[in-house]
Every structure is written in structure tokens, then in C-alpha cells.
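Progress report, Aim 2. The chain analyzed during this reporting quarter is listed below.
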Amino acid sequence: MRIALGQINPTVGDLAGNLALCTRFARDAAERGADVLVFPELCVTGYPPRDLVEKRTFIPQSEAALERLAEATRDLPLAIVAGYVGRSRVPTGKQATNSAAILRGGEVLFRQTKLLLPTYDVFDEARNFVPGDSQSLFQLDGRSIALTICEDAWNDKGFWPNRLYERDPVDELMKKGGGLLLSINASPFHLGKRELRLEMFRAMARRHKAPVVMVNQIGGNDQVVFDGSSFVIDARGEVIASARSFAEDLVIADLETGTGELRADFADENEAVYEALVLGTRDYIRKCGFRKVLIGLSGGIDSALTAVIAVDAVGRENVHGVAMPGPYSSDHSIVDARAMAERLQIPFDIIPITPAYEEMRRTLAPVFAGRAEDVTEENIQSRLRGLTLMSLSNKFGALVLTTGNKSEIAVGYCTLYGDMCGGLAVISDVPKTLVYELSRIGSERHGGAIPRSVFEKPPSAELRPDQKDSDSLPEYEVLDAILRLYVEEFHSAKEIAVELGLAEDLVRSVALKVDRNEYKRQQAAPGLKVTSKAFGIGRRFPIAQRYFENE
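Predicted C-alpha cells for the chain:
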């Protein structure tokens, strides 16, 4: 049996476009002699469809698209495994199902419904779908096929010490006599996820002594990026075929000979994160109907990284850099911003905000009389920059990319309606220390586009004389270590202080900043998830709350 991995990038809700994409891949797979072509989870509708499934027309249109896919591939000598949104046969409760079908000869031969519906991190499938109650094997060309959908394979009792579900769908199917596991996935990327996914399926193949085919979608859908990285593993747990990460791919594996195509991959995880950000940025822009982007180039490392990512995502001709010097901007900031724009060969403008800032101070002076200057005046500068970028966005139809990193956003070192203005927060899940590592990668890809001085200068918002980030925050190496344990691993302040050898008062002050700035983050532009716990849809804390850890 020759199996093709159809690693595609569907767009949520674009049924016609996804159908055309699947049909093209099916014809390519047939020409290459595949017997079976496996597509990712919900390839017909795109994943995640979220509340689109609540629309009365969505489910019937999804099912009709599946039928059209069967008809469009009627003449092809191969079976196709495709995911779609189906209708539940149960008359009560939710109506949508997360389902998969096997198509051949213009007919839908077999249907399977997902049993385990994840409701953690970025997943909320129980909100939209009703689970199946049982699954069965399918006989295909002399093999007993165990077909599962993403989470159904992520509860292996032999791999996970603490399982989330009582049932293990893979184990149930293999005990019925399954000889080949097909797992279709929409498994999001984060640091370390590719290795975890591979090791889990390797353990599964060895335990059940059967080959495993894992097909994962690629692409960015809102805040989530899917890396693909599909593979075929033999019964010994060895990888015999693998697809690229972060790119559409069609890979063939021959189960009889135990051979297949092995694509080059990103061995370095920082390279993988950079690719994820490029892909997520490109897809967000493209799928939202934009072509061009605007970036406020401050001469700092965060805007520099955002700029190189944007150039890789949509091309230099579609990236517009804007420097907006204010009363406390250093000369080197403008020099570095201009130098970078020239090296990247992107359009660049300088629009000073100082005249507008001085006018705002005069306008507000009667109301502010008798009060000392404070963060208010700093925020006016930031908000004038936001106003400038959004005005350009409106006039030229370009999407503003915000440049705030995870460290700043975590502790509220950002200005609502100022530097937080924009349509996509590209690096909002990238800690400051990782920003430097990714910037080196991006700079090298563009022949040293980021000036050395950008890496060497102390980080500063430049909103008051001689301002440095370290005036308000711990050094970023310390801050990021605290934030990783507090935000991503949910350790208490006391535990973090002991683990890192830090003063407990310091850790508590950081934790308090995180908790008190939830209101800002929930008004921020959507960001791209690249760590195990990102701010956004995967982290849902109340804004109005008074819980503080006392241990």
C-alpha cells in the first residue's frame, strides 16, 4: 500500500477553495501512484471553524462539499481520507460533529466521528461539537484501518502519566484488530511540540506493533499556527517518511517496502519558531484579505524583528516602515531605523510626533494645571504614534503590525491605544530574550539587515530622558525566567523564588503586574502562539478578580 500524506493549508470557511486544493493534491497523488491519500483534520472546512458551525447553513454545506470532493475525484484510482464537519445523528444536544470520511470511486465509503473533544489551551471543541460514542475499523485493500481524529490519539495510556480522558480510542480500535493507524490532525505548533508529537506516535507504533500515519495541517488560522511535520512510522517506531515543517507538501510512503520520502526539516527550534511566525503572519494577512503592512520602526530590536518577519512573510515591496521620532528619541534610533529600512529595501517614512505632542500638552495644560508630569505625558507620545499608524492604515489599506513582545505585554509595559494599536501582534508570544535570538536568525537571512547597534543598545521606550526598560523592570533574563514559570507552568511566586534563587518580594511584584494587566491584554491585537501558553484564546483569566496566592 502506497500512502500519500496530503499536508495542506486550508482556509477556515473557504469550502470552495479547500475543495479545489484537495482535488489538486488528489490528482498529484494519483499521478505518483498512491493507493491512499490522507488529508488533515477538517480539511474541508478548515480548522478551527469555531462558532461557524452554529450557522444553520454551515453543516449542510460542509457535507455537500465532502460529496463534491468524492465526485471530483471519482475517476482517480485511490482512496481519500478527509475531515469535515458533519451532522450528529442524535436528535438532542449539539448538531455538529468533527468527522472524517473515506472516499473512493465517487462515493463516501466510511465515516468516523471524533470521540475526544479537547477543551484546554486554544481548544474549545466541546463548545461546538458533539462527540461520537463509538468507532469502528474499515477494511481497505486487505488492511484493517483504524482511523482517528487528532485528540483521539493524544490519550495513549502507555505514554501519558496523567491522562485527560478515561477512554483511549486508539487502544480500543487496535484491540479490535486494527493493523494500520491513520491519525488526521490539526495539531498547533509551539516550542518542543514537534519532538513531543513524534515521540508520542513512536511509542504508540511500538506498543501496538503497527504502522502509524500522522497527517497534520499547516498554516496560520488567527492566533494558532500549524506546522505540518507529518510522518509515517513503521511498527518498530522508525520514521520512514516525513513532510516538511511549515509548508504544504505531498509525501509518499510504501508500507510494503518500508520506505518513503524524507524531507529536510528545521532541526533548530529557534529556526522553527521563526518559520512559525513568518507563516502565521503571512496567512493572517492573506486570509484576512490584506496585501500590505505598516510597522513603526523605532530603531529597537522588537520592531526590527517584526520587520524582517514581515518581509519574509509578504515581500519587501509590501512592508512599509515608519519612524515617528518624539521629543526624547535618540539620534541613533532614527539612524538605525533608516539603515535597516535601506538594507531591507522597504519603503520608509519619517513622521515626527513632537509638534503634535507639544500641541496636545498646550491643549491639556488648563485641565492638568497644578499636577506634575508623569506616565500620562509618556502615554500621549505612544498614542500619537498609534494614531499616526492607524491613519496611514485607513488611508492606504495596510494592516498595522504591532511590535510588543511577550515580556512587556505580560507585565503591562505597553500602552493601550498606543503601541498596542494594530491588527496583528506578531511577536506577542516571544519573550524578550528569545527576541534577540530570532532577530539574529532574521538578520542573517537578509545579509545582516539589523544593525549591530540595535543588538547592543539597552532596551528603551524613549518616552522620557535617558529612559531604560531596566528602570521599571528586572533584567530581561530574570524577568523571562519568572514569567515562564508563572505564566506557562502556573507555579506560585514562592515556588518560583525558591527554584530561581530570587527574592520572593521580587517574584511577587512581577506576578502582581501580570495579574493586574489582564485588562490590557484582552484589548490587544491577536498574537501568534509559539510557546506552550500564550496570552489570548488559550489563557482565559478574569479581568475583575481578587485572587492572590498566599502560600
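The longest helix spans residues 375-396. Residues 90 and 144 are 27 Å apart (CA to CA). These observations will guide the mutagenesis work planned for the next reporting period.
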